[in-house]
Amino acid sequence: MTPRAVLVAGAVTAAVLLLWPKRATAQSKPPPPRPGTTASRATLDTLTDDTRAKARELLARFREEGIDHVVVSTLRTCAEQNRLHERGITPVRGCRSWHTHGRAIDVLAMRDGKLVHDGDDPVYERMADIARQVGMKPGADFRDPVHFEYHPNLTIQQVCPDPDACVDVEPVGLLPDDPFLLYE
Asked: Cβ of 5: how many Cβ atoms within 10 Å?
């Protein structure tokens, strides 16, 4: 696997760990996502207003370009981010992730009803180009092709001087507790 494929596989693993922690077993798998859907805990309503607007613009552009996709992560708690860091899925811990500030989304591409696991697949470069066009920063710029963030005129050091002092943002508009309830 290439490093980018590992990151995409890591995003899938992160989505499963964060969204389906109590049900995951060797015999069970989450239901397949439908293109253009969002996992319930990955609702855009948990993003800051300006990031939500940019994310909606980004996803609309993906649809216009015929890129099937599923949003797998938006706002994360500090504990979720730290758990992903401890498992080696992300190098970033605590509030050093834009996810803990409601300013990032992870979006997996789909083809023929299946997730595209190869981070070197040209679809991720196309998605990164679209993100730049709408004013978002694509994670492809730092080897995380499924990550997209929006934080105009802010640095992570400004909002998080100490990752050990992570404070959770109060989420709004969360859906019921069914971890893989998919909606459009």
From this structure: 16
d(C-alpha 33, C-alpha 21), whole Å: 17
Q: What topology is assigned to 3-21+33-164 in CATH?
A: Muramoyl-pentapeptide Carboxypeptidase; domain 2 (3.30.1380)
How many Å is the Cα radius of gyration of the chain?
15
**Which DSSP letter does residue 33 get?**
P
Helix (H, G, I), strand (E, B) or coil at 69: strand
Cα separation, 152 vs 40, whole angstroms: 27
Q: Where are the beta strands (DSSP E) in the chain?
A: 37-39, 68-73, 104-111, 114-115, 137-138, 147-149, 182-183
Residue-wise pLDDT for 79-92, tens only, equals 999 999 999 988 89
- The total of other beta-carbon atoms located within 10 Å of residue 162's CB is 10
